[in-house]
Amino acid sequence: MQYQVNLKETEEGYTVWCPSLPGCASQGTTKEEAIDNITDAIRSYLEVAQELNQAVESYCVEVELNHA
């Protein structure tokens, strides 16, 4: 599965985060290290989410936005 990640250069290197997974972020001193680190972070995030969602009822709801 592919996830979009955002990468931003900082004074210390690079920060990287996955907008579709709230709170899933990492960093690295190089772009390559940051991408490797966010890949590990996404994997861990999904494993934890899977564990937390076991034996939980899930529903889909439809939400309409009011456009002014």
UniProtKB/TrEMBL annotation:
SUPFAM superfamilies noted in UniProt: TTHA1013/TTHA0281-like
Domain named HicB-like antitoxin of toxin-antitoxin system: residues: 8-58
Domain of life assignment: Bacteria
InterPro entries, sorted: HicB-like, TA_system_antitoxin, TTHA1013/TTHA0281-like
Protein name, per record: HicB-like antitoxin of toxin-antitoxin system domain-containing protein
Species annotation: Rippkaea orientalis (strain PCC 8801 / RF-1)
